[in-house]
Design goal:
Blueprint (H helix, E strand, L loop, with lengths): L2 H8 L9 E3 L5 H9 L5 E3 L1 H8 L8 H14 L4 E4 L8 H11 L3 E5 L1 E2 L2 E2 L2 H15 L4 E6 L9 H13 L4 E4 L7 H7 L5 E3 L11 H7 L3 E3 L3 H18 L1
Parallel strand pairs: 1-10, 2-3, 3-4, 4-7, 7-8, 9-10
Antiparallel strand pairs: 5-6
Helix pairs in contact: 2-4, 4-5, 5-6, 6-7
């Protein structure tokens, strides 16, 4: 079985309280730690990579993002998916080619740019081109940014996600969806559903099993694991500076 086929299979037949949990490494060292802990696959967050390279979120040059993903893939034996933000302005075939050159077998692609939601039908058409260029070699996770852009009604996320599924997305990712919205999304949408979990922070956050019980097929953490690690480093730095 290829890594792409394995990654796709990991999303199938999940029990409600047993979602696929994908930690987000930001470099080769963190990727090795997550793989050694037994996670069957990894999901690279663009914001975590950006921070590790000294960029603000969304400002990492494409060549540096692809190079970072390639280093992570080389460091582990498990399938790796990568957040490619909005696709860096690349044509679908070039985007897919550069992703496959890294060795990754999945990607996130978001439906907003500069804080503004894209036209959903035009975005769906673009996703269809990505699907056509990738065939079965890439697991396509279509990010739905409505909740992140202040649209709280699940109906808008469902409308967009339905278009993206019809365009060939393997999974949809309504980033920032409230836990109470997940059952509505699950009831309306076929196929895998990605939920975002936080690690640490000040407010209560459902654990992956709880998100799975609400309807999530898989759980990712965005940049939160990288940020948690940096808080530990901050503590060490402050202790040493005393």
């Amino acid at each position: 079985m290829t890594k792409a086929a394995l990654f796709r299979a990991l999303h199938q037949d999940r029990a409600p309280a047993d979602p696929l949990v994908l930690p987000g490494p930001w470099d080769a060292a963190s990727a090795r730690l997550f793989a050694e802990a037994g996670f069957p696959a990894l999901a690279v967050p663009s914001a975590g990579v950006a921070a590790s390279l000294g960029y603000a979120d969304g400002e990492t040059p494409a060549q540096e993002m692809f190079a970072a993903v390639a280093r992570i893939v080389r460091a582990v034996d498990v399938p790796v998916s990568a957040d490619l933000e909005g696709g860096y302005g690349l044509a679908p075939r070039e985007l897919v080619g550069r992703l496959l050159d890294t060795g990754a077998v999945g990607c996130n692609l978001e439906d907003s740019e500069g804080g503004v939601l894209k036209d959903p039908r035009a975005h769906a058409d673009w996703l269809a081109e990505v699907r056509d260029a990738a065939g079965d070699a890439v697991f396509l996770n279509a990010r739905v940014d409505t909740f992140a852009r202040g649209v709280s009604d699940p109906a808008e996320a469902i409308s967009r996600a339905s278009l993206y599924i019809a365009a060939g997305a393997d999974c949809v990712y309504p980033i920032g969806a409230r836990p109470d919205a997940l059952p509505h999304l699950r009831a309306a949408l076929p196929g895998p559903l990605n939920a975002l979990a936080r690690y640490g922070g000040t407010g209560p956050t459902p654990v992956p099993a709880e998100l799975g019980a609400l309807g999530a097929t898989r759980v990712t953490f965005g940049p939160w694991l990288q940020r948690g690690a940096m808080e530990l480093v901050r503590g060490m730095a402050e202790e040493l500076a005393l």
